Amino acid sequence: MSEGYAKVGQVADFPAGSLKKVTVGVDEVVVANVGGKLYAITDKCTHRGGPLNEGELEGNTIICPWHGGKFDVTTGKVVSPPPMKDEASFSVRIEGTDVLLKKM
Length: 104
Prior knowledge:
The chain has about 100 residues and is mainly β. About 0% of the residues lie in helices and about 50% in strands. The strands form two sheets. It has a six-stranded antiparallel beta sheet, with no helix packed on it. β2 and β3 (about 25-35) form a beta hairpin. It starts with 5 loop residues before the first strand and ends with a strand.
């Protein structure tokens, strides 16, 4: 396994268009499959702590289910308020069929 990366599942666990919550160390993380490519950011909305994994994925944007804040899942950056603070982003690596994440 790659240095500093944590295995969070298999590629098949993250179907296209899906959002799935996983844990990496102490972080709760949402993994999004956008067009067959996996991205990962912290799961708790920086506005009021809403669970992003229960939100909607539109293209590469996650919409928080609580207040409609939007984040770019490819970068963790805020796209639309009320959140003002970006989400932490994770590096995603695929080794064979294993999905590995590491905090950036």
